[in-house]
Amino acid sequence: MLEGTHFHTFTMGAIFLILSHLFIATSVRREIKWLVILTTFFPNLFGIGGVWLVRYGSSRFAYLPMASWVTMTIGYLAMILTPLYEMWPGQTRSSQ
Hints:
The protein has one domain. It has helices at about 1-25, 30-55, 65-85. The chain has 3 helices and no strands. Helix content is about 80%, strand content about 0%. α1 runs parallel beside α3 (about 65-85) and α2 runs antiparallel to α3. By secondary structure, the chain is an all-alpha fold.
């Protein structure tokens, strides 16, 4: 578990950092940016820390990592698809 946590902490942090910066550069409203970024940040923490809670806390925490993985996937998809949509050739940006 320690090796997996160590690896995921650094890789997921780097992926989150890069995708967040790309997402911040989009023309989405500021409130939505905050919502998507925070909705992705906290499941990152719960996904990594949740397995430790299951192991050393209680088996009742077993749904926490699963829920965080689903939420994290939705957030990452939003942070990936929004910049792709705005960079796609032929699209016009509303801020121009």
